[in-house]
Design a protein that fits this description.
244 residues; alpha+beta; four-stranded mixed sheet; 11 helices; 58% helix; 10% strand; binds zinc ion
């Protein structure tokens, strides 16, 4: 393995035991990224009931196929939790919470927008980058080399679930989501409707919106996506006219 092993020190924090590594930034390889995602996926599935949903899988596979990393082992499952949330793990796994399915109802375009956003985080390696830059890096390596304890894996799982993406990463995943939905022949405006739904519920003080904790959503972000969609439609109209 090309990654140097690092010394691990465990600090007991109020909520989590976090491994601190003294290493500099090293890039996780594709297979290491996949392995970490799969380990964490197993941990999540040992804690929560998850199941397949035909609409989620169909939309997920259709969107993943047009992403810039279509060859990853994507896997889409529903997690038996009431919150409005979705989680993506490095290298392919995506979990849609039951609460999100209820909130989007029969609006498949809205659901597609959220799944496309999660695929955007995976394709752009956002969680992998956070692992590379962060203090959990050492734990990731322990897990990969088979030396990780169940507690280490649980720590990574907890951290990935609590992970806060930067505004830049959110914008990037939104841009990808608009691109993927359009390329898959779906209507990207579903993502704008999802933001509207979140913003409305947020104003009402709805506490089931876990998505907001890990993917901060603001009016500016909603408007940016609406603007992107408008610009892309205008570009397509212009090029269609030019062809004629
Ligand atoms: Zn996000």
């Amino acid at each position: 393995m090309r990654i140097r092993r690092c010394g691990l020190h465990f600090l007991t924090l109020a909520t989590l035991a976090v491994g601190v590594s003294g290493c500099g930034v090293t890039r996780l390889s594709r297979s290491e990224e996949i392995q970490i995602g799969q380990q964490v996926s197993r941990e999540i599935e040992s804690q929560y009931r998850t199941y397949e949903n035909p609409t989620v899988s169909r939309l997920g596979q259709r969107l993943a196929a047009v992403s810039e990393r279509p060859d990853l082992p994507y896997r889409f499952r529903v997690i038996n939790r009431p919150e409005i949330n979705a989680v993506s793990l490095p290298g392919g796994p995506v979990y849609v919470f039951e609460g999100l399915l209820h909130a989007t109802g029969d609006d498949d375009q809205m659901l597609a927008g959220v799944i496309a956003h999660e695929i955007g985080h995976i394709a752009k390696r956002h969680a992998a980058q956070q692992i590379e830059r962060s203090q959990w890096y050492g734990i990731g390596i322990e897990v990969l080399t088979g030396g990780g304890s169940a507690r280490d894996i649980a720590t990574i799982a907890a951290n990935l679930q609590l992970l806060h993406y930067s505004r830049k990463q959110e914008y990037e995943a939104d841009t990808e989501a608009v691109r993927y939905t359009r390329a898959a022949g779906l209507n990207p405006s579903g993502l704008v409707r999802f933001f509207d739904l979140l913003l409305q519920r947020q104003k009402r003080g709805d506490t089931t919106i876990a998505w907001l904790r890990t993917h901060p959503t603001t009016e500016a972000r909603r408007n940016r996506v609406a603007q992107l969609i408008q610009e892309q439609s205008a570009r397509e109209t212009t090029s269609a006219t030019a062809v004629r």
